[in-house]
Sequence to fold (125 residues):
Amino acid sequence: MPDLEQSLRDLTLAPYIVKAMALIGVRRRGGSNMFRHQLSTMAILLDYKIVDPVLLKAAVIHDLFEEAADMPGVTEEEIVNLDSDGPAVYALVMEVTIRVTDGVREPKTDYLLRIMTTGSQHART
Fold:
């Protein structure tokens, strides 16, 4: 098992947290806070000792393009240029983003089935 403390010490999350701040004040369907949900998702990964930098960074912004796509700084270019992990983080976020076709959101059951049957290992995690 890798040295968790060293893995986290070398992790740069600040630019991703700044991007996630676009979700401050955005409410989830159940009424909870979207920004806190992003950070809680990352905390769940840490609780399971998952310190993969791409997974942790994607967790922090995983709903950004669903909930704040029209906000300044929420673009593919902005994310891929955050750091060396940016392209992989963006690809993972897009993989786990609920799709919208002709204005219709992908049903949750279809979304989960898509991730489980064709998603990458990162997406399934």
About this structure: The chain has a mean pLDDT of 90.
